[in-house]
Amino acid sequence: MDVTESIRKRRFHRSFTDEPVDEDALAQLVWAASRAPMGGNELVRRIVLVTDPAVVRTVRQVTPSFLANAPAVLVICTDLERAEASMGIQGRDVLSLVDAGAAAENVALAAVALGLATCFVRSSNDVALQEVLELPGTVRPDILIAVGHPAPTPSPAMKNPPAVVYRDRFGSVWNPRSGASTAQKTAPIRGGSNGPTPFETALYLVASARDCLDEPLIYGPFRMIEGVSRMLEGQTGDSFLKEMKAAIDREKYNVMADRASFARWLDDLLRAFAAEAGRRNVPARASTAVAVDGETG
User: Fold this and answer.
1) Of 5, 95, 115, 137, whose CB neighbour count within 10 A is largest?
2) Which phi and psi angles does 96 have, rounded to 5°?
3) What is d(CA 288, CA 221) in angstroms, rounded to the nearest whole number?
4) E strand or H helix at 228, and its extent?
C-alpha cells in the first residue's frame, strides 16, 4: 500500500477488538514514529509503549478524553530540558509539539498499512500520566495513540470538510481546477545572475537575527554561514571566494546533522579564511615600510 492510499484510508477508531497487537507490528509502529522529523535534528522525543492491561486501564481512567478501548497505547513525549537546551524556548514549547504530531501521523499511516486502527488524544493531564507512567517531571506527555484491531462494525467515519486553501495571499481562494491552465513563469527566488541585491541580503540577515532569538541554537551559526553564501553569489572574479562558496554550499546542510562535525567544519573554514587573510595582507605590510636614513626597512 502506498502512502497516498494510507492517507485516503486513514481514520480514527474508538472501538477495538480484544485481540492484542503482536510485537512485530508494534515494533514497526515505533519505528515509524522514530522516523518523523525533529527540530534541529535533536533527539528530544521519548516514546512509551503501553501494553500491560492494568496500565492501559489506568491511563484511560486518568485521561477522560481517551475513549478508545484499545489494547495498546503509544505515548509520544518530549524531554523538556533537552529540548530547551538545544532548541530554546520555541523548541520546547512549539517545535516539540509539531514534531510529536508528525510522529503520531507516521504511526497512523503505518497502522493503516498493517491493517490496524488508531486514535489520537492530546494529553491534558500531564501530572497524572507522569505518575502512572513514572515519567520524570521534565518529560512531558504530548500525544496518546490508541492502537489495536478495529471492531468488526466500527462507527461511521466522519466526513472531512473541504480544506480552506488560499493562493499567494490570505483570502485569495485557490481552485486547482480553474487554475490549472493559468500557470505563470515564476521569478527567481532572489537576485539575478549577479547574486542577491544588498537589500535582499540585508533583509535575510535582519529576519535571521529575529528568528535566532527563538530558534534552535544550531540554526544561528547556520544562518550566518547561509548569509555568507548569499553574499558570495556572483563573486566569480575571486578564485578563493568562489572556492569557499562552493565548499559552503556543498556541506552546509550535511553538517547540521552532527553538531560536533559542524564545529569541526567551521574550524576548517575559518582556518582557510585566516590563511588567505595572511596571504592577502603580506603586500599591504610590505608597501607600508618606512624609509630611515635613505634606506627602507
Assistant:
1) 95
2) -65, -35
3) 36
4) helix 219-231
Q: Is 215 exposed, middle or buried (0-12, 13-18, 19+ CB in 10 A)?
A: buried
Please give the Cα distance from 78 to 45 (Å, whole number): 5
**Pairwise CA distance, residues 33 & 49, whole Å:** 11
Tell the residue number behind the cell numbers 489495536, with chain if given: 148
| pTM (two decimals) | 0.70
E strand or H helix at 56, and its extent?
helix 53-62
What are the residue ranges spanned by the domains of the chain?
Answer: 3-148, 198-282
Q: Which pLDDT tens digit goes with each residue over 46-96?
A: 999 999 999 999 999 998 888 889 999 999 999 999 888 877 788 888 888
Residues 6+ apart with CB under 8 A from 70: 16, 56, 117, 119, 146, 147, 148
Domain 3-148 in CATH 3.40.50.1970: no
Contact call for residues 37 and 99 (beta carbons, < 8 A): yes
